[in-house]
Amino acid sequence: MSRIWDSRTDTYEIQTEEYSGPMDLLLDLIQKAELDITKFALAQVTDQFLAFIQQHQDADPEYISEFLVIATKLIQIKSEAMLPRPPERPADEEDPGEALARQLYLYREVKKATNWLSQRAESGKRSYLHIAPKYAVTAQIDLTGIDIQDLILALENLNNQDQSVRIGSVISIPKITLRKKVQEIISLLQVHPNTSFNSLLGENRSRINTIVVFLSILELVKQRLILTEQKENFSDIEITAEEGIASASGIELTIED
């Protein structure tokens, strides 16, 4: 960027240069000459670099001073390249041509990355995907209690069991009411406050008895007279009596009998 004096306004007019700095110019000269970034390539483009400075003598001194620093290094590199043998240097002193070539190479890589990011920003791709690391997933079971869905799953599991009977067996269907079953469970829990779904079924695994016991448990859960817990999927449902079970008698059902 250079500043040209405007006598009409007594101010500097800022103009944008073709190159952002000396490294930008140096890289462009080498790329146009289709050369690799080496100290010999730097020596070859020295005259063109100096010609650019000559053409911009009226530029802002601060801007052009950066080019003069690099020009001094290029003149030294070209002068040494014309010698019949490389000059001797102390072991701890780096070759100026190699040092400048390395700096130019790094500048080129940074410029590539900057241009790539600018293109993504202009195209609206300002966010970058971050892939979350994969973690091993350990299966866990919530043991704080079960809900109605757990009871339904347990009921379906029992219904899927073999309910076949021998041909010729005489099947008598006893009359089982929801109200009677609820009272039976309450009476049992008043004596034994801990039981399970399978224990309540007993030997009668018929579908009708399973349904009635299931609905009875559901009713007692709604009445907050029992707590239920299933330690594993499809395992037996543990039932624990609440404090109110001791005085429960003749409760009003929320489900039709």
Radius of gyration: 45 Å
Low-confidence stretches: 1-16
Helix content: 40-55%
Widest beta sheet: strand line-up: 3-5-4
Order of helices and strands: EEHHHHHHHEHHEE
Basic shape: rod-shaped
Calculate the mean pLDDT score and round it: 78
Per-chain topology:
Elements lengths: L1 E5 L4 E5 L6 H11 L6 H6 L1 H10 L5 H21 L14 H27 L25 H12 L18 H14 L2 E3 H5 L5 H16 L3 E4 L8 E4 L16
Antiparallel strand pairs: 1-2, 3-5, 4-5
Helix pairs in contact: 3-4, 6-9, 7-9
Can you summarize this structure?
This protein is mainly alpha-helical. Helix content is 47%, strand content 8%.
Describe the structure in your own words:
By secondary structure, the chain is mainly α. It folds into 2 domains: 121 residues, no CATH class; 100 residues, Arc Repressor Mutant, subunit A (Orthogonal Bundle). The chain is 47% helix and 8% strand. The chain is rod-shaped, with a radius of gyration of 45 Å. It starts with a strand and ends in a 16-residue tail after the last strand. The N terminus is likely disordered.
